[in-house]
Write a structure and sequence with these properties.
60s Ribosomal Protein L30, Chain: A; Phosphoribosyl-aminoimidazole Synthetase, Chain A, domain 2; 2 domains; six-stranded mixed β-sheet; globular
Length: 331
Amino acid sequence: MNLNYKDAGVDTNKEEESIAKLTEKIVNYGEYKNISPKGHYAGLLDLDGILLAMTTDGVGTKLLVASKMDDYIGLGIDCIAMNVNDVVCVGAKPIAFVDYLSFEKPSMKIASEIGKGLNMGAKKSNLTVLGGETATMPEVINNFDIAGTCVGIVEKGKPIISEDVSPGEYIVGMRSSGIHSNGVTLARKSIESSKYTFYDNLRNGMAIGDELLKPTRIYSDVVLDMIEKHEVTGLAHITGGGLKNLKRLGNHKYDIKNPMDPQEIFKFIKDCGNISEKEMYRVFNMGTGFCIITPDPINVINTSDKHGIDAKVIGRVKEGDGVYINGVGKI
């Protein structure tokens, strides 16, 4: 069996069609101008010269792994990370966050641990958690779900959007902490189809479930440092869709000649589900959690190193279209 994302229950083409249907009738009625680049990571609102960025996201089916392992703290960090990493992609400084936690039946343990995680993520992001909403919906929710919304501001100059990227520039990749919060449905189905359980250990001695629960790395502090000190023309949070997320930065060829070495968990998932290499790169971050487009890669890499995050040049922007991975082809 060659498992893929669609077989696991996630049809990305249907998702795109649904988004198109959702947005086709929406009109902007407010007094402030929407300057959001189509398909980018965060919306942008021009408040008479001050730009407000906004995004919303959750943690996906990672919460099912948390339930299996009875460990929920990382989900709060993930929820912060998925949002602040998107907001910073337009050059905005994340400033505030609200969460939405819904239950089938309220759990004090889950609420407490998620709260601890939200606090840890907020501290790392230098972010104010303003509050949020909790709901009990037994006929709608199975167990629980969490999502959040983050706002940020572009304090100086213009936002960093797709029109700034040019062929010839370098693609610098920053190391992910692991699977992050994307593709977990395929990872779960792959492992569940094998002889292994979430409680078995990988070669590194960590339980599979604990490896999947490693919190999403927060990049906002290092990226803001890069923006302030160096020339940066494009920023990509590598979420669902893997390195295809680079296409959000404009119609170019993104030629990845020297990708990051994927962590052990990715090879394990691939082998369990007999997943093709191309499908792995189309779904997972494969070791690269964030990309910076820059003409100044040396200084960008040095800044990443100072923040304790491994980084390197993984490719170049070229004339053309699509994302190409060395040894894999177009994804």
